[in-house]
Amino acid sequence: QSVLTQPPSVSAAPGQKVTISCSGNSSNIGNNSVSWYQQLPGTAPTLLIYENNKRPSGIPDRFSGSKSGTSATLGITGLQTGDEADYYCGTWDSSLSAGFFGGGTKLTVL
Amino acid sequence: QVQLVESGGGAVQPGRSLRLSCAASGFTFSSFGMYWVRQAPGKGLEWVAVIWFDGNKKYYADSLKGRFTISRDNSKNTLYLQMNSLRAEDTAVYFCARVGTGDYHADYWGQGTLVTVSS
């Protein structure tokens, strides 16, 4: 059981927008920045968003991140079938002195 | 370009030990912290451990303390994970990842090495 809570699955049609939430507490999200990772089937995770809302080079601006209090959100616009993947949030917990990932959210593009 | 290549995985009996390695290239290894992250079959990502750039600080997932040890050899650009008293529930793909600049995100990941613990 992770300290970060994500919905198990989300779905939307091609071209539409979807958001994925990540809920924590004051020791983790409330006190540290959040990163988001995409894991395509059978591959290693890749970094999508870091420091709550920054995109590494090469990540399209269809992907965005935000944080408010003890929750964070990943947004994906203009959905493509190639976006079908598992998405994970991650952060540090200052009280536990450990890193954590959310349980992951499976995105289906219908 | 940044490359992280894990090795050392395989099949091992419960109670035995295994040491994983992660060979780094394409960046100044001694300037970056490093993670181990694992993923059990069909499950999500689980953070395992982190080691600071100079090896002076190490933190572990609470459930693994005492059995797993993270270390590094900056002269060899290599990260290690010593796993002792292995259990069936340690069966997973183990990824090494680099700690990005600025906060605790993992900016580059290896392809992973599979560890199977079974009698």
Q: Summarize the biggest pleated sheet of chain A.
A: 6 strands, mixed
Helix content of chain B: under 10%
Question: Which runs of chain A of at least 5 residues are low in confidence (pLDDT < 50)?
Answer: none
Radius of gyration of chain A: 13 Å
Oligomer: heterodimer
Overall average pLDDT of chain A:
96
Count the beta strands of chain B. 11
Range of strand content of chain B:
over 45%
Query: Using CB atoms under 8 Å apart, which protein chain pair has the greatest interface?
Result: A-B, 28 and 25 residues
Globally, the shape of chain A reads: globular
Question: Major β-sheet of chain B, in short?
Answer: 7 strands, mixed
Helices and strands of chain B, in N-to-C order? Answer: EEEEEEEEEEE
Helix content of chain A: under 10%
The total of helices of chain A stands at 0
What structural class should be given to the helix and strand makeup of chain B? mainly beta
The overall pLDDT of chain B, averaged over residues, is: 96
- Provide a count of the helices of chain B: 0
First-last Cα distance of chain A: 29 Å
Number of strands of chain A: 9
Your description of this structure?
The complex is a heterodimer of chains A (about 110) and B (about 120). With about 110 residues, chain A is an all-beta fold. Chain A is about 0% helix and about 45% strand. Chain A is globular, with a radius of gyration of 13 Å. The relative contact order of chain A is 0.33. With about 120 residues, chain B is mainly beta. Chain B is globular and about 40 Å long. The termini of chain B are far apart. The chains are: A mainly beta (about 110), B mainly beta (about 120). Chains A and B meet through strand 3, strand 7 and strand 8 of A and strand 5 and strand 10 of B.
